Amino acid sequence: QVKLVESGGALVQPGSSLRLSCLASGFTFSDNDMSWIRQAPGKRLEWVADINGRGLATYYADSVKGRFTVSRDNAKNVAYLQMSSLKSEDTAVYYCKQRTTWGQGTQVTVSS
Questions:
Q1: According to the model, what pLDDT value does residue 8 have?
Q2: Cα 42 from Cα 40, distance rounded (Å)
Q3: How far apart are CA 77 and CA 11, in angstroms?
Q4: What is the rounded distance in angstroms from the CA atom of residue 84 to the CA atom of residue 16?
Q5: pLDDT at 40
Q6: Which of 10, 60, 73, 92 has a beta carbon 3.0–4.6 Å from 38's, enabling a disulfide?
Q7: Can you give the pLDDT at residue 23?
């Protein structure tokens, strides 16, 4: 059974950094691209970043480029989203996704 579990969300101040984790199980992690997607209150889902299976290619939404970094540790079956220079508009529930499987999400709130 494919399972994704996000963690690391928190309430932080603007300008802070935060790292989210996505622990995967039930599939061959290194064979699969992983995505991070977020949903702000009252807004549509927004794709944030992708990383390919080997971690050699990454892609970012313009809204986070230069501030967020996606990475993975295939030995641990974990994908990460390192977020820096956080803004209030980054407040959202963050999900990791593998093909059609989504995690439960982790809340990130950026507020002073």
A1: 98
A2: 6
A3: 26
A4: 6
A5: 97
A6: 92
A7: 98
What pLDDT shows up at residue 15? 98
Tokens linked to 10: 């928190």
What is the number of other CB atoms lying within 10 angstroms of the CB of residue 59?
14
Question: Burial of 82 by CB count in 10 Å (0-12 exposed, 13-18 middle, 19+ buried)?
Answer: middle
Question: Cβ(5)–Cβ(75) under 8 Å?
Answer: no
User: 48, 68 in Cβ contact below 8 A?
Assistant: yes
Q: Tell me how long the chain is.
A: 112
Q: How far apart are CA 42 and CA 39, in angstroms?
A: 8
Residues contacting residue 110 through CB under 8 Å, at least 6 positions apart: 12, 13, 14, 16, 86, 87, 88, 89, 90, 91
CB 90 within 8 A of CB 29: no
Percent of the residues in the chain that have a pLDDT greater than 90, as a whole number: 100
Number of C-beta neighbours around residue 31 at 10 A? 9
